[in-house]
Design a protein that fits this description.
Number of helices: 4
Strand order of the largest sheet: 1-2-3-5-4
CATH topology: HIT family, subunit A
CATH superfamily: HIT-like
Catalytic activity: adenosine 5'-phosphoramidate + H2O = NH4(+) + AMP
Family: Belongs to the HINT family.
Largest sheet: 5 strands, antiparallel
CATH class: Alpha Beta
Number of strands: 5
Cofactor: Mg(2+)
GO molecular function, one term: nucleotide binding
Radius of gyration: 17 Å
Pfam family, one: HIT
Length: 133
């Protein structure tokens, strides 16, 4: 897409600190990092959500994220991927964050507000989702 900032980075219209590039994947340092080594891994196929991206573009993403985590010597790190604005996606192009977590204050900070489980409802949901897979 012509207006997509990540597509412009892939094409070289916007400069980046490129870490990796192949026919299907591009990785670069985040310019607003949460910690040292925070990087983005993006498929070259433009799609807003994970479900929009062909599997062959996604198959390289995690190996590249793994290489970045190793190259930054991150003992602890998060791999984050958001879908939709209410899920905190800012750029409407699928991207995976590799965020080193060197200590309690740097890197990604998250809350995990769990909910009580009704096992009958959980079983019904399981059957519904499994049938669609």
């Amino acid at each position: 897409m012509a207006s997509c900032i990540f597509c412009k980075i892939i094409k070289g219209d916007i400069p980046s600190f490129k870490l990796f590039e192949s026919d299907k994947v591009f990785a670069f340092l985040d310019i607003q990092p949460l910690s040292r080594g925070h990087a983005l891994v993006i498929p070259k196929y433009h799609g807003e959500k994970l479900t929009d991206i062909p599997d062959d573009y996604l198959s390289e993403v995690l190996p590249v994220a793994k290489k970045i985590a190793q190259a930054t010597n991150a003992g602890a790190y998060n791999i984050l991927q958001n879908n939709g604005t209410i899920a905190h996606q800012v750029v409407p192009h699928v991207h995976f964050h590799v965020i080193p977590k060197p200590n309690e204050t740097e890197g990604l900070g998250i809350g995990w507000p769990t909910q009580a489980t009704d096992m009958d409802k959980l079983k019904a949901l399981y059957e519904e989702v499994k049938a669609k897979m």
